[in-house]
């Protein structure tokens, strides 16, 4: 078995997240997908208008991906 290194950079993450979101602009105003990335942790979140004040946007995290370096 060979070890495979997966190179994930921010442009790869951006392309993936952009493909998850809706294409229609009106739908994207109601629900969209965003991310934050700090080099080791990717957090995916949903972007929606706040139910109390639709002008405010809220970000609801739904996934966290963390990179751990192998200890070999």
Highlighted features:
elongated, 72 residues, 3 strands, alpha+beta, 35% strand, 24% helix, three-stranded antiparallel β-sheet, 2 helices
What would you say about this model in short?
By secondary structure, the protein is an alpha+beta fold.
Topology summary:
Blueprint: H1 10-20, H2 25-30, E1 32-37, E2 41-49, E3 57-66
Antiparallel strand pairs: 1-2, 2-3
- Tally of helical segments: 2
Number of domains: 1
Beta-strand content bin: 25-35%
- SSE series: HHEEE
> Which strand order spans the largest sheet, edge to edge or round the barrel?
1-2-3
Structural class call reads alpha+beta
**What's the total number of strands?**
3
List low-pLDDT spans: none
C-alpha Rg (nearest Å): 16 Å
Shape type:
elongated
Largest beta-sheet characterization: 3 strands, antiparallel
* Alpha carbon gap, first and last residue: 15 Å
Name the average pLDDT: 85
Estimate percent helicity: 10-25%
Description:
This protein is of the alpha+beta class and 72 residues long. The chain contains two helices and three strands; from the N terminus they run H-H-E-E-E. The two termini are 15 Å apart. Strand 2 and strand 3 form a beta hairpin. The longest helix is centred in the N-terminal third of the chain and has 11 residues. It has one domain.
């Amino acid at each position: 078995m060979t070890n495979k290194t997966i190179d994930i950079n921010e442009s790869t993450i951006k392309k993936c997240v952009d493909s998850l979101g809706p294409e229609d602009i009106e739908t994207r105003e109601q629900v969209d997908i965003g991310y934050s990335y700090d080099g080791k942790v990717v957090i995916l979140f949903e972007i929606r208008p706040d139910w109390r004040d639709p002008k405010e946007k809220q970000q609801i995290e739904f996934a966290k991906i963390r990179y751990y370096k192998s200890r070999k």
